[in-house]
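In line with agreed milestones, the collection of sequences with tokenised folds has grown. A representative record is reproduced below.
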Amino acid sequence: MIYVTGDMHGDLERFSAPALRKLKKGDTLLICGDFGFLWDGSKPELAALKKIGGKRYTVAFVDGAHEYFELLGAYPIVDWNGGRARHLGGKLYHMMRGELYTIEGKTVLAMGGGTCPDEDLRDDSRMRWELPSREEYDRALEAITAVGGHIDYIITHEPPLKIKAFLQLKSGSQSRSEASGLNTFFEEMGKCCTFKRWLFGSMHMDKHIASTHTAVFKKVIGLEG
């Protein structure tokens, strides 16, 4: 079964949550950005990656705005479930931007990227590729076209523009990052495809917005049907 959770920011204790301890061999956990376990390349960090890759279930994540992109880019690109992914070892993968995967018979469009809400980190060279390139935007659109515009699930870090604005207005806070061209792209992308569910993690909340859109953070959501 496919499960989805939100930003982890390098917190290994998240994998000890009761909901994740229930995952079985053959299951897949998708993380909606800010995986955060690649930040300094230290021995403890490499040990954490090895531990995650050794889980009985597969772990795959889209990148967010808190990743060491240059370090992430050093990992080999492999074919994983019909799309390109970076293999971090064992059963741990990075779902590359704009790639379409077929996981347990379901099509999953992955699109990482985001803008950092932390002013003290915005000039950090580790985050220089936080927003997608034109090529990555095009790849997502090509993937949608290749399946006739019909996708089962969309996994991103950021939400579409109108949903981001709604959630910020609802909470009365601008504490998360401001909207960017990526949010606008997602707004338009959503109009040219059909999908069962779109899940994103950047807002750091667990909220069922509509039958098609879900903000996820600490919860672990099973994708059925």
In short: The chain has a mean pLDDT of 91.
